[in-house]
Amino acid sequence: MQEYKAYLDENLDFEERAKDMVSRMTLEEKVSQTLYNAPAIERLGIKAYNWWNEALHGVARAGVATVFPQAIGLAATFDEDLIEEVADTISTEGRAKFNIQQKYNDTDIYKGLTFWSPNVNIFRDPRWGRGHETYGEDPYLSSRLGVRFVGGIQGHDKKYMKAAACAKHFAVHSGPEDIRHGFNAVVFKQDLYETYLAAFKACVQEAKVESIMGAYNRTNGEPCCASITLLKDILRSEWGFKGHVTSDCGAIRDFHEYHKITSTPEESAALAMNNGCDLNCGKMYSYILDAVCDGLVEETTLDQAVIRLITTRMKLGFFDNPKEVSFNQIGYDQVDNKEHKELNLKASRESIVLLKNENQILPLDKSKLKTVGVIGPNANNRKALVGNYEGTASEYVTVLEGIKEYLEDDVRVYYSEGCHLFKENVQALTAKNDRLSEVRGVCDMSDVIIACFGLDSNLEGEQGDQGNEFASGDKRDLNLPGIQEDIIKELYSSGKPVILILLSGSALSIPWEDEHIPAIIQGWYPGAQGGRAIAKVLFGEYSPEGKLPITFYRTTKELPEFTDYNMTNRTYRYMKNEALYPFGYGLSYTDFVLDNVSISGDEILPGKDITCTAEITNTGSMAGAETIQAYVKVKMDGAPNLQLKGLKKVFLQPGERKTVALILKDVAFGLYNNDGKLVLNEAEYEVYVGTCQPDNRSIQLTGNKPYSKVLHAKKTVTLS
Questions:
Q1: Which residues touch 116 (CB under 8 Å, ≥6 apart)?
Q2: Helices 198-205 and 139-154 meet at what angle, rounded to 10?
């Protein structure tokens, strides 16, 4: 009689099957499965599996895939539905690539279905090089987009996951990059819960994210990948997380090499395993075998880690009849197909933020132009399209290429690189500013100048990926690097109209440009179709609709120390100075009128929703989209300036009118206290509903003042 093997019984739940499978492993086999490059255990039907894969804005590092706008650009769409559609497309391509890789027994790194995305760290300081991997500076926006991204990656099948998402880096991580391996982020419990944990909590409790990645740094003295506070008390006990935890790559080695909280690799591995880190990206968990034999780790603790890991693989359908897992039928024709390219173009177009449009110089009228000058180091820079953690596109369209394609042969396009991205000369051996005469010549020949400047991921990114004058991928300041501003001033002095396009993953300080250049566009790293999208917006085929997910400051001098994790004077929620361009800001070619705004009730009660309704009308001549935003200001000393608590994007044809409702739950009015408890305080609360923040700078820039109403909470109540 054949032995019954519960792990093969597809009628049992995944965890029960995983427990049976792990019970059949030797100690050595169990240890091997806690490494990111887990080997095969053939007698149990376990294939080799590499857990490390990336999908930040497309399937990364494994050949051709649709390369969407970088995460910060996706955040600028303020479009929750789009984010899930993009993530769903990414996981479709991930499955298609995985299926073909499995067919040919390719189990290499970047070939699995466990995607270490999204990055939901808060972009608290614009100097942080990895900020463009995030959804910006606001906990609410990051939460909403993170939840929808996870939903798109993991899918909504009743039994199987399409792919596994991973929220990273847990927690309190946003630079500096060059000291992250030994850095201790000191944070008040109030800031911890109010700012740094919010998006992670939403991903865990709402989206049921399958995995959490620990950060390199320590938080309040504990290494994040072995933090009792983060991994046990908060993640497992408070939030009820059921998935697995992985270390960042090399983070456990940091315990003894940089943090100096352990003395040996064995101690480091034991500390991480005992405190809830299930998977090691690195080699330290090979020491778990000795740790168990030496009594530093109980074998039952190891068992629990491996059960969690095998459960994830079972949720992905790895041990079931392939015909019963519908995702196995996704073919390679779903990679980088026409529909995905069209979605990519849509996402890129939605991400574009119009910062300035003096005298409605934009959109440009193609029929009135004979010549266009395209000048700048990012005009024909593919790297400025994609950011980091990227895949390989089958087609890249730079800004120069997009403009040429759009104008065809009807308008002559002149081009100059203008200057190097950050050096003083383009060509070796030449004098400083070696393209100046060419710049002047192009200006002479052009009816209008389209200036393409900014950064690329050679200048901002992750430590180890960069090898330039900017410290480990972080920015020293917010200025345009090299001699870029000199060239922009030269363009301005030509007397020709100048349109400035900034491609960057973070805020730049451009007060001179704001004062002198008539039109400014923030294009982010707009994806492989970015140049095409920008051209269509420049020439009026679409109206810009993006909003800033970060604050543009006037200068680095107004920022606290980079290493200070206190939120005082950081982001729109706590800053004291006026922004150059505020969070939530972005202009359109068309006009929207918000009227008949109402906010239900006068009193805020636990368990009771506040409903904000408004009618919005497109009174302009172009179709376009606008984002209704609801902010809450708690009128108490020490409270944030205000906080985004609701949003809804609406697309309207000219003359079209729609009614929008935003629901604010009781938690929207809560503030965390110094004990990490969410409290509805006895206080006055002002609710603002509009198309921008209610700050003076936003009102000045847009000409729109949000509607507001004061509500009250008559008693203090702990919400959670």
A1: 52, 53, 54, 55, 166, 168, 211, 213, 246
A2: 30
Written as six digits, the tokens of 366 are: 């193609």
Helices (H) and strands (E) in the chain, counts: 20, 24
What pLDDT is attached to residue 626? 98
pLDDT at 469 > cutoff 70? no
Q: Which of 529, 538, 543, 503 is nearest to 369 (CA)?
A: 538
Helix-strand-coil percent breakdown of the chain, rounded to 5?
Answer: 35, 20, 45
The verdict on whether 434 is a catalytic residue reads: no
DSSP state of 223: E
47-50 long-range contacts, CB within 8 A, separation 24+: 47/107, 47/318, 48/107, 49/107, 49/112, 49/313, 49/318, 50/107, 50/108, 50/109, 50/110, 50/111, 50/112
Task: For Cα atoms 268, 273, 274, give the angle at the middle one, nearest 5 degrees.
Answer: 100
Sheet containing 657-664: which strands, arranged edge to edge? 592-599, 610-618, 657-664
Average pLDDT over residues 170-188: 95
C-alpha dihedral (344, 350, 356, 357), degrees to nearest 10 = 90
Contacts of residue 678, defined as CB under 8 A and 6 or more positions apart, other chains included, come to 193, 667, 670, 671, 672, 718, 719, 720
Q: Is the pLDDT of residue 468 over 80?
A: no
Please list the residues that pair with 153 across neighbouring strands: none
Distance CA 457, CA 489 (A): 25
Neighbour order of strands in the sheet with 184-185: 184-185, 218-219, 222-223
Query: 248, 278, 401, 456: which is the annotated catalytic residue?
Result: 248
Using one digit for the tens of pLDDT, what is the confidence trace for 268-316? 999 999 999 999 999 999 999 999 999 999 999 999 999 999 999 999 9
Q: What is the pLDDT of residue 184?
A: 97
| 66 pLDDT above the threshold of 90 | yes
For residue 1, the model assigns a pLDDT of: 65
10 assigned to active site: no
Across 548-682, the runs of DSSP E, i.e. the strands, are: 592-599, 610-618, 624-634, 643-652, 657-664, 671-672, 678-680
The catalytically annotated residue of 93, 460, 513, 626 is 460
Distances (CA, A) of 358 to 363, 500, 604, 627, 701: 11, 12, 42, 22, 11
358: its two tokens: 């003096």
The model's pLDDT over 676-687, given as tens digits with 9 standing for 90+, comes to: 999 999 999 999
Distance between CA atoms of residues 228 and 667, nearest Å = 26
3-state secondary structure 344-376: HHHHHHHHCEEEEEHHHCCCCCHHHCCEEEEEC
Helix (H) / strand (E) element for 512: namely helix 511-516
Q: Which of 557, 668, 567 is nearest to 612 (CA)?
A: 668
pLDDT at 3 over 90: no
H helix intervals, 275-398? 288-293, 299-315, 338-351, 383-386
pLDDT tens, position by position, 405-438: 999 999 999 999 999 999 999 999 999 999 999 9
What SS3 class is residue 695? coil
For the stretch 206-228, what's the b/e string if a residue is b when 16 or more beta carbons lie within 10 angstroms of its beta carbon? Answer: ebbbbbbbbbbbbbbebbbbbbe
For residue 573, is pLDDT > 70? yes
For residue range 345-360, list pLDDT tens digits in order: 999 999 999 999 999 9
